[in-house]
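Subject: design request, 152 residues
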């Protein structure tokens, strides 16, 4: 895979942080956190592409829901142990932290799979436009940081 392809996959993966692109709360994130939806909406998708992307998100929704629920439960157990009255060590918590790591990895892999499927729907022109938009957004974020956090 070329560097350009890796960059494009990363861009599309970052688009997926928002599931509100075309769905009714389906996919990796339900609350529209991030800028993925706006980028997808900005590349000029056809109605057919919108339907394909929506179907991709819908088909993966059960997997995301299950993984998030398992992750929530494991994190809750970890919190119960850490804030409980029984003594704990990193050794006693290791199985739980390993489970959390494994679930996070599974969630990342599922997001990547969705990103690759969505990438397959986009034209090369749309991918180029997404790249340009992402670059501009990155520059704006950098400018914002500079303005809000002036150095010494």
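Subject: RE: design request

Done. Sequence follows.
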């Amino acid at each position: 895979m070329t560097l350009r392809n890796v960059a494009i996959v990363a861009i599309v993966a970052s688009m997926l942080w928002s599931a509100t692109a075309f769905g009714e709360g389906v996919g990796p994130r339900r609350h529209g956190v991030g800028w993925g939806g706006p980028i997808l909406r900005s590349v000029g998708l056809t109605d057919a592409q919108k339907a394909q992307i929506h179907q991709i998100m819908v088909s993966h929704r059960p997997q995301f829901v299950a993984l998030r629920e398992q992750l929530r439960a494991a994190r809750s157990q970890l919190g119960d142990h850490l804030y409980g009255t029984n003594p704990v060590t990193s050794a006693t918590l290791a199985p739980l932290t390993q489970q959390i790591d494994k679930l996070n990895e599974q969630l990342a892999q599922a997001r990547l799979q969705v990103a690759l499927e969505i990438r397959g729907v986009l034209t090369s022109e749309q991918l180029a436009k997404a790249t340009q938009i992402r670059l501009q957004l990155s520059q704006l974020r950098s400018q914002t940081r500079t303005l809000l956090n002036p150095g010494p």
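Confidence is low (pLDDT under 50) at residues 5-10, 12-35.
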